């Protein structure tokens, strides 16, 4: 493609000029490179030459705050349809993708992995990656029907939401591979054989010139998909273990491990045992809560809906000193030995700040309890 149409040397010098100008006006601005059409070996070679020239010309590595790629899947052939050959390279061809590859999830995933691998190998793993443009460009007339495009949209969304890699991902974002992505297009016109222009996949009807408002089949699919990702919050309460089961107010909460849909979160309750989690996806799944030395409390099949959801997790059962979700003689032995040998800080089960006979009595009272404490799921 001819967007930019610069040699590596021209791009490096233009980037330096604009980077310096923007940072002088706003030192906190975050600067990204122009989008790499697709991170194929040919285009990564061009990008290598950009970095090499920048280092030679300016005496330091090229500063990039955010890395930016497109994820189109197009053939690289000089003078032919597709995305052509980057200016400044001598090759006549690169990846020979076909029309059928235009909605290939395997190709899409490989591009993301290849670019993240390139970033890691160039010391850039600790930077975010955005995919500022991708979609299906080939028209319906070539077999890329609305159903087919929508399946590709959903599959790529699913992948990008879940994609993590402990060796390649962005450490500041739980090793996710991509931090932002944008579908192409909002309202570009569809393919017009007469003019040879236009693309597939628009979310809105291109005839809405003043303000896009009429959703296409792709737009309706996008609306359904994103609605399913509406953010939920969870407000929960546990009854905290207290000294001798009385209302001893210690003025502090308890560190809790709350697991929602298989993902564990570390939260601190307030002194009444209330806790809050935000940024959860809707759906039906199990919610479990435990604190140090307690069995897990479980709500099976809890329904998370957009907005605030309230869950009552009941009294935390204390005595699981060994952490195996069971209260048995091994816990009693460890507890008794810690108390007998006066090991500090000791094992405090009732929250009174001491380790003594009361804690042993609490454990003994729950002896034999094992497994998850299943709570009745409220009607929703």
Structural class: alpha/beta
Distance between the termini: 53 Å
What would you call the shape?
elongated
Major pleated sheet: 5 strands, mixed
In total, the number of domains comes to: 2
Summed over residues and divided by their number, the pLDDT gives a mean of 89
Our Rg estimate from Cα atoms comes to 29 Å
Order of secondary-structure elements: HHEHEHEHEEEEEEEHHE
Strand content: 15-25%
- Order of strands in the sheet with the most strands? 6-5-8-9-11
- The count of strands amounts to 11
- Percent of residues in helical segments? 25-40%
Low-confidence stretches: 243-251
Number of helices: 7
Would you kindly provide a written description of the structure presented here, covering whatever features stand out?
This protein is of the alpha/beta class. The protein folds into two domains: 8-227, no CATH class; 232-375, Sandwich (Immunoglobulin-like), CATH 2.60.40. It has seven helices and eleven strands. The chain has a five-stranded mixed beta sheet with strand order 6-5-8-9-11, with no helix packed on it. A three-stranded parallel beta sheet has the order 1-2-3, with helices on one face. Helix 1 (8-25) packs across helix 2 and helix 6 runs antiparallel to helix 7. The radius of gyration is 29 Å and the shape is elongated.
């Amino acid at each position: 493609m001819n967007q930019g149409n610069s040699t590596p040397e021209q791009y490096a010098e233009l980037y330096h000029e604009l980077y310096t100008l923007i940072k002088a006006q706003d030192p906190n601005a975050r600067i990204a490179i122009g989008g790499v059409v697709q991170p194929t070996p040919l285009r990564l070679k061009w990008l290598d030459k950009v970095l090499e020239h920048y280092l030679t010309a300016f005496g330091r590595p090229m500063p990039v705050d955010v890395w930016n790629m497109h994820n189109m899947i197009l053939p690289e052939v000089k003078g032919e349809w597709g995305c052509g050959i980057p200016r400044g390279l001598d090759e006549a061809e690169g990846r020979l993708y076909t029309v059928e590859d235009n909605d290939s999830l395997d190709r899409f995933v490989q591009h993301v992995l290849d670019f993240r691998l390139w970033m890691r190998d160039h010391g850039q793993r600790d930077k975010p990656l955005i995919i500022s443009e991708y979609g299906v460009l080939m028209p319906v007339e070539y077999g890329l029907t609305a159903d087919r495009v929508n399946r590709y949209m959903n599959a790529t969304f699913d992948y990008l939401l879940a994609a993590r890699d402990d060796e390649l991902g962005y450490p500041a974002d739980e090793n996710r591979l991509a931090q932002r992505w944008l579908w192409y297009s909002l309202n570009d016109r569809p393919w017009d054989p007469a003019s040879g222009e236009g693309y597939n996949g628009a979310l809105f009807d291109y005839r809405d010139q003043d303000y896009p408002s009429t959703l296409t089949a792709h737009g309706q699919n996008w609306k359904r998909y994103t609605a399913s990702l509406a953010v939920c919050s969870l407000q929960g309460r546990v009854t905290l273990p207290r000294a001798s089961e009385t209302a001893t107010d210690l003025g502090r909460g308890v560190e809790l491990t709350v697991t929602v849909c298989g993902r564990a979160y570390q939260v601190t309750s307030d002194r009444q045992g209330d806790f809050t989690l935000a940024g959860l996806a809707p759906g039906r799944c199990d919610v479990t809560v435990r604190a140090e030395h307690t069995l897990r409390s479980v709500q099976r099949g809890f329904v998370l809906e957009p907005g605030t959801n309230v869950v009552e997790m009941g009294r935390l059962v204390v005595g699981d000193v060994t952490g195996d979700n069971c209260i048995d003689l091994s816990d009693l032995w460890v507890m008794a030995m810690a108390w007998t040998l006066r090991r500090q800080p000791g094992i405090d089960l009732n929250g009174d700040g001491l380790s003594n006979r009361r804690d042993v009595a609490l454990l003994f009272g729950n002896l034999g309890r094992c497994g998850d404490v299943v709570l009745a799921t409220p009607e929703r």
